[in-house]
Amino acid sequence: MGTLYLVRHGQASFGSHDYDRLSELGHRQCRALGEHFRSMNLRFASVLTGTLRRHRETYEGIAEGLGQSPAPEVCAGLDEYNPEAIVRAVYSGELPKPDSPEAVRQHFRLLREGLVAWMQGQAVPAGMPSFADFSAGVAGALARAREQADEDVLIVSSGGPISVAVGQVLGLQPEAVVELNLRIRNSAVTEFVANPKRHSLLSFNGLPHLHRPELADWVTYA
């Protein structure tokens, strides 16, 4: 049996006008993860990523640290949901810029509420697929990875698709999937054991590449 490694992108640019790019710390996180994979003598038979810039930059950092860079298969089913559309589906008031602790807490309270409503079919965020279609995209990417179930495969994505993937494997309800989503750390690794028919969860939200005390301030969530 092979292992499927699902990696959330490195720290992006939360609160800026362009979230979809890694911060300098995000680049360092990803290179460190690649170096960790190299220390494990990992060689990925294939790589799947979402279409977003932060996914591409994350994989580039991993590949640099790993010293191996197979051309990734780009899969739209691994793209993140639109958090602003999710929030707007349940809240019509003014959204303050998340530049204070209270504003950040409000953002995530609304995001949690909007995600549950979307997953339960009670909200239709503008410009987004239904949750059923979003979930089907994730399932399709997992099925693609299972085509090489005897090999190690890497997926680079975002917190939403990764938490949905875990929810599919474990049969979780929407509220539990949302809680997983909001706990996934930047560059964190989730592992599935694969066989041709299904995946099983091996680990969730690990940061083996950042366990050294001097890297404690490299652990981020947004």
Automatic annotation (TrEMBL):
Pfam families: His_Phos_1 (PF00300)
EC number: 3.1.3.-
GO molecular function, one term: hydrolase activity
Presence of the UniProt keyword Hydrolase in the record: yes
UniProt keyword annotation of Hydrolase present: yes
CDD domains the record matches: HP_PGM_like (cd07067)
Keywords: Hydrolase
InterPro entries in the cross-refs: His_Pase_superF_clade-1, His_PPase_superfam, Mito_Ser/Thr_phosphatase
Superkingdom of the source species: Bacteria
PANTHER family with a match to the protein in the record: PHOSPHOGLYCERATE MUTASE-RELATED (PTHR20935), SERINE_THREONINE-PROTEIN PHOSPHATASE PGAM5, MITOCHONDRIAL (PTHR20935:SF0)
Full protein name: Histidine phosphatase family protein
